[in-house]
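Hey,

Quick one before I head out. I ran the complex with copper (II) ion overnight. Inputs first:
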Amino acid sequence: MWALVAPAVLALSACSDEAQGEWSRIAMPEGASDRSEHIIDFWQWTWLAAILVGILTWGLILYAAFKFRRRSDDEVPVQTRYNLPMEILYTIAPVIVVLVFFKFVIDTQNEVDAASDQPDHVVKVVGQQWSWTFNYVDDPALGGSSEQDVCEDQTDAESATCVYNVGTPAEVPTMYLPVDETVRFELVSPDVVHSFWVPAFNYKLDVIPGRENAFEITPTREGTFVGRCAELCGTYHSRMLFNVEIVSAEEYEQHLRDLADAGNVGIALGGSEAITQDGLDAEEETEAGE
Ligand SMILES: [Cu+2]
């Protein structure tokens, strides 16, 4: 069957450069952030290491199975027990494999999680049931300096440096980012655990109530990318979609000005009791009363 399937798969995949790249990236999406290459490299080398270990293991299994298969003379091969060098080898070999993996995990993690003291932009991302809010915090494009506490008192569109964009399950929000400028995402949730995932960043991070997770990237190419929630978070989890527009600095500034003109000034973090939905309390009371 593989003889039939393999050429078909290859023929289909050879349609575009993008599909060919997908093969070499082993199904990882093409990166759009400066951290992507570290993760894709790690992914490729992990596969290579796993395949080499696999080939060695399958080879030994097949070798033993054929070499010592049952024969007509019914003779049992030499039984070796308590072979100390052998036992030391198969204890130490896996430990070495794990240690090597561990080193590369730590190295990659350090590259990916590296953060600067002063990123160019701060986007405070709120994951709420069931959509996203993007707060551009005291943004330099509007004359700000990335200080959080100044957002709360802002009301005036003219002088605003903090603007936001709230999505709903029916209206997918779009986050704008300027290309080649560092951005820190600060993730907060007013209700349950969500997960902020832009596949083109080759990275996702949980959004946890009562805790602020953060990570930093630099978008490396302009374009429109999809984003989604990667943590089952309730009935309309599947609608927790968003778009990411990576644009020039001018377009980014224009978008922020548009948000200010639309009156989206200040910071929108969602109610701390957003989990309480209309009707739930009433139902509980009736049940208790019965
Ligand atoms: Cu969610």
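Residues 36-67 form the longest helix (32 residues).

Talk tomorrow,
K.
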